């Protein structure tokens, strides 16, 4: 099987501004072409008749909602074609109502690609919030977006089982195609943001033998809890003290992970808020990616590329 990649148009538009004025901070945009992404098998079926839609929150930040068909997007990458390298699957957040595809997907992939890894972006299923067309679905999406960020409203339905099932399917897919995609099947990790970080933790705790990540990262995700997976993989976790969604949590999960004997790296930034993945804001949280890159190297995940 040949290595699949998204067509160039998708990446070319990842930072382009949409024409026209913003509508209450968000603008509907056409669905970008992702036909060459890999469809993932659905292991936990759910009816979702809503059509997928895309919106632009700022000129360089796009969101996708009503995702009913999980896909694995393969970043084209700059590694030598035959180099065998570790893989990182990015799991964007968005309160399970949308996915922040630029801020926590494409823009992170651009930086991660330079670290000597094969990068994948998981487009997992989200909660249905109305039809995906501009005429009727976009208002429902905009209302959900406002409810999440302005009022802190949480969705009534728990989407984690579907997101976890799709993440497990992505891990299995990468390992199954390790030879074709030039990935080291023993170095397949996941890096999640916000709801994606919640998904990363739940996926790791599930302890599915064939879908267990070899290393995990959580950016502004949960820090509380005592459930540690058997043979817990190395964990990288960062959060800002003023995070509006997780600041009330204690650090019990990180303590439990460390006392279990597993490797933990944790950074608590004094400020940075929520959503700083690819959005520098002048606080120490801007350093998170460089620290993640050092962590990958220190854990011998990167720096061991073989082949040509």
From TrEMBL:
Pfam families reported in the protein's UniProt record: DLH
InterPro entries listed in its UniProt record: AB_hydrolase_fold (IPR029058), Dienelactn_hydro (IPR002925), GDXG_lipolytic_enzyme (IPR050300)
UniProt keyword Transmembrane, yes or no: no
Protein name: Acetyl esterase/lipase
Gene Ontology MF term list: hydrolase activity
Top-level taxon: Bacteria
Domain (Dienelactone hydrolase) ranges: 163-282
Signal peptide: 1-17
Keywords, sorted A to Z: Hydrolase, Signal
Keyword Signal applies: yes
């Amino acid at each position: 099987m040949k290595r699949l990649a998204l067509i160039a148009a998708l990446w070319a538009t990842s930072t382009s501004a949409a024409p026209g004025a913003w509508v209450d901070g968000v603008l509907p945009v056409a669905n970008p072409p992702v036909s060459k992404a890999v469809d993932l098998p659905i292991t936990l079926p759910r009816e979702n008749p809503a059509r997928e839609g895309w919106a632009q929150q700022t000129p360089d930040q796009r969101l996708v909602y009503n995702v009913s068909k999980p896909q694995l997007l393969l970043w084209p990458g700059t590694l030598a074609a035959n180099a065998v390298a570790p893989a990182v699957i990015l799991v964007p957040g968005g309160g399970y109502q949308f996915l922040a595809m630029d801020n926590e997907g494409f823009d992170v992939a651009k930086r991660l690609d330079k670290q000597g890894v094969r990068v994948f972006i998981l487009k997992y299923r989200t909660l249905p919030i109305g039809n995906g067309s501009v005429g009727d679905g976009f208002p429902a999406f905009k209302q959900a977006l406002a409810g999440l960020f302005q009022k802190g409203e949480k969705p009534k339905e728990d989407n984690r089982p579907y997101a976890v099932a799709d993440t497990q399917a992505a891990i299995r897919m990468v390992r199954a195609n390790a030879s074709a995609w030039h990935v080291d099947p023993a170095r397949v990790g996941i890096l999640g943001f916000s709801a994606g970080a919640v998904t990363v933790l739940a996926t790791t705790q599930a302890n599915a033998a064939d879908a267990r990540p070899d290393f995990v990262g959580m950016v502004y995700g949960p820090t509380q809890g005592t459930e540690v997976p058997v043979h817990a993989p190395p964990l990288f976790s960062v959060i800002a003290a003023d995070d509006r969604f997780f600041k009330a949590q204690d650090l019990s999960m990180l303590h439990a992970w460390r006392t279990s004997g597993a490797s933990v790296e944790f950074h608590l930034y004094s400020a940075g808020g929520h959503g700083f993945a690819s959005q520098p804001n002048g606080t120490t949280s801007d350093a998170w990616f460089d620290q993640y890159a050092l962590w990958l190297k220190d854990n011998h995940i990167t720096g061991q590329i073989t082949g040509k």
